[in-house]
Amino acid sequence: MTELLVPPWEPGIERSLPSVEMVGGKGYGLYWLAARGFPTPPTWVLTIAAFDLTIQRMELGEEIAQLGRALATVGDDWTQLQQMLDDVEPRRRDIAGRVAEAVLLDPIGRVLERLVLMPDQWAVRSSATVEDRPGQSFAGQFLSLLSVPSGRPLWDAIRQVWASVFRREVLAYCAQRGLPLPRMAVILQPMEPITARDRSGVAFSQSPVPSMPGALIQAACGAGETVVRGYGGDLYSVEGETVRIQRVPPPEIRITGPRGYLEPASSPDAPPLTEEEARRLAALVDRVAGDWGGPVNMEFIWRAEQDPQFVQVRAAVT
């Protein structure tokens, strides 16, 4: 049977990188980072094959194909795009709803059994075939969930990530760029609860903001969702030893609740990173860009009293 679950990268073990067609764009980036010794959380990927098998057993292939053909009829005309989206809305909602309620197939259940007994909580992240690819990042289009409790909630979260393939905004993104509907792998990373002492955010090896040259970091306390969704986060421009800081404290942050998942919390008064930490992170991102062969955008988490880890890498849009 086609591989359904790819295990974490193990240093010293002879192994080829899994393909984007197996683990999606975000998953490929994480294995690429781990293979080169950059810090990442332990990462399993429920592969594209698991998504395909579920779609096949549900006999949704033709309905999804019809949806894809509708997308292919639309060009750059905004009015035509909106009309098409309205026309396919009943089919889109039906497919997304059925995928979100998919039955756990025995082959998938068997590969997940070894995981549900491990940690108490998981990060469940999207990794579509089209995600984080050059010129088509699909940034923010798909669903990712943090602090998901182990057991049944893990399967529920996987199905929600699969169903996000059929979001209206994803269909619009594909239609505007002449892309086929993506297929979805799911990243599974064990995690400890996120607290206000942890820091997360994004980092650019080359700043996209002319007034803040060098590497650019945006960080907030708690989960990275605060920064990624545009709620705020302090900006750090790093050029050599020089660090320029622009305070953009968010009105609130996101941390793990008592029963898992994320909930809002008050934003601490102090900046999330010191100047020395900003320099350290910028140097690490610069090393990644050197190995990548060009500018990169990254997401990171920096746990209290630990070293930073990367949870995403993609080529910067130039």
Give the structural class.
alpha+beta
Give the overall form: globular
Considering DSSP H and I runs of 4 or more, what fraction of the residues is helical? 25-40%
Strand content: 15-25%
Which runs of at least 5 residues are low in confidence (pLDDT < 50)? none
Element-level helix/strand string: EHEHHHHEEHHEEEHEEEEHEE
Average per-residue pLDDT, rounded, comes to 93
> What fold name stands as the CATH topology of the largest domain?
Dna Ligase, domain 1
**CATH architecture grouping of the largest domain:** 2-Layer Sandwich
In whole angstroms, the N-to-C terminal distance is 40 Å
How many DSSP-defined strands?
13
Plain-language structure description:
With 318 residues, the protein is of the alpha+beta class. It has 2 domains: 5-190, 2-Layer Sandwich (Dna Ligase, domain 1), CATH 3.30.1490; 199-315, 2-Layer Sandwich (D-amino Acid Aminotransferase, Chain A, domain 1). Helix content is 36%, strand content 23%. The protein has helices spanning 20-35, 48-57, 61-71, 78-100, 106-116, 152-163, 168-177, 225-228, 275-292; strands spanning 5-6, 44-46, 121-128, 145-149, 184-190, 199-204, 215-221, 234-239, 242-246, 252-256, 262-266, 296-302, 308-315. The protein has a 6-stranded antiparallel β-sheet. Strands 1-2-5-3-4 form a 5-stranded antiparallel β-sheet. A hairpin with a 2-residue loop joins strand 8 and strand 9. Helix 3 runs antiparallel to helix 4 (78-100), helix 4 (78-100) packs antiparallel against helix 6 and helix 4 (78-100) crosses helix 7 (168-177). It is globular. The model has no long low-confidence stretch (mean pLDDT 93).
